[in-house]
Design goal:
Layout (H helix, E strand, L loop, with lengths): L3 H17 L2 E3 L4 E2 L5 E8 L6 E9 L10 H9 L2 H4 L11 E9 L2 E9 L20 H14 L11 H12 L9 E4 L17 H7 L14 E4 L2 H8 L5 H10 L6 H20 L9 H11 L18
Antiparallel strand pairs: 1-3, 2-3, 3-4, 4-6, 5-6, 7-8
């Protein structure tokens, strides 16, 4: 984290949150993007089941962004959607166990206690640095999970038309597409937010569902409505430095090769190049040449833009 004062303030906030929730540190601190969040593995002061304690911070004078309510709204949206309506699937989202809010001087804080996921992440970096060997069942489970996510009911929005109308020309040099079809998405699907599998699924449930253990999806703070195939486009972009892995993503998500998928790729490419330009990233700079090459591939012939299918975008 580049700002030592902010890092120190977040560490103090984590300690305060631990006292509020009777938790003690049991692992190293991990800082989020933009220096506005930090988290670590914790345990009850008397021992017991571990949990992940995350603290967010924002100036009191500023309006908190959508990430402030992300995990709480995800708990309401998906707590019943997984399992009850889709009983043959496991909820791949860490449950939100507790929330505490407070202010200290010019800053507001939110502490979130989340279920601790024991299975290893695919990568501690959002960007794939080497090949990641994952079975076909893992990819199938990820696809099914994202299909369930797309059925949620929400008015939260990740991508706004007025924003990409500015962003796409600025970063890619051509006119932005019109967002005709949107659906709920995880919103931050990269390799640090995916685990290699869920062994606690158990052999009985695996046999019953006909699937092998699949990935847990971490980091739900940014979820909301986005262009169709947005999550697939985000995962593909974070795989570009490992061509065989990028190719595997496209195999798992053939919708990337449709007009809707092209729109999602345009949006994601512009967003990531913007983050790199602003220095608002975690190791994304390695993707810069790949993203610029992708931007050329996505550039419409004759100055036009992709024409995705028209779909219902209102919340039912």
């Amino acid at each position: 984290m580049s700002d030592p004062a902010a890092a120190s303030r977040l560490l103090a906030a984590l300690d305060h949150a631990g006292k509020l929730l009777d938790r003690v540190a049991a692992g190293p601190t991990v800082h989020g993007r933009r220096g506005r969040s930090a988290g670590r593995r914790t345990e009850l002061s008397g021992g017991g089941v571990p949990a992940w304690l995350r603290v967010l911070s924002t100036p009191v004078a500023e309006t908190a962004d959508r990430r402030w309510q992300g995990n709480r709204t995800a708990e309401f949206a998906f707590g019943d959607l997984f399992g009850d309506r889709f009983g043959d699937f496991v909820d791949r989202r860490p449950k939100l166990l507790d929330v505490r809010d407070w202010t200290d001087g010019p800053y507001a804080y939110r502490a979130e206690l989340l279920q601790y996921v024991r299975t290893p992440r695919c990568s501690w970096s959002p960007v794939a640095e080497t090949a990641i060997d994952l079975p076909d069942a893992w990819w199938g489970d990820l696809r099914r999970t994202l299909g369930i996510v797309a059925r949620a009911r929400t008015q939260r929005t990740i991508v706004h038309q007025d924003w990409i109308d500015v962003l796409v020309p600025d970063q890619l040099g051509f006119r932005a597409p019109t967002l005709r079809a949107t659906a709920p998405a995880h919103g931050s699907l990269h390799w640090a937010n995916l685990t290699k599998g869920a062994p606690d699924l158990g052999p009985d449930l695996s046999a019953e569902t006909g699937t092998e253990p699949g990935p847990d999806l971490l980091g739900w703070a940014a979820w909301g409505r986005a262009p169709i195939a947005y999550d697939a486009a985000m995962l593909y972009a974070h795989s570009l430095s490992v061509p065989e892995l990028a190719a595997r993503v496209r195999t798992a998500f053939p919708e990337l090769d449709t007009a809707d998928g092209r729109v999602a790729e345009i949006v994601v490419t512009a967003e990531l190049l913007h983050r790199i330009a602003k220095g608002n990233h975690r190791g994304l700079d390695v993707l810069a040449p790949h993203l610029r090459e992708q931007a050329q591939r996505l550039r419409p012939a004759g100055g036009g833009v992709p024409r995705p299918r028209k779909a219902q975008t209102t919340v039912k």
